[in-house]
Amino acid sequence: MPHFYFHLWRGGHLTPDEAGVALPTLDAAERRAESMASSIIGQDECAPESVLGWDIEVTDEAGQTMLMLPVSDGQKSMLTQQAA
Question: Half-sphere exposure (CA, 13 Å, Cβ side) for 58?
């Protein structure tokens, strides 16, 4: 099973994910990144503009970037979940 790492970039400052997690697909990794973004916004109860410049970088085991997700996209994810 592929191993993915979820690094947090906050205004150019990196908080690396040293452990990562095994997930079956890149789609599963994207859903996890979206959940992380929603959690960051929900935890701080912050306005989306306060996380501008924050990104979750998903990399594979070789360190190759697989996707970048702006944390502010977590607000969209939260609204979609609330509407469901």
Answer: 25
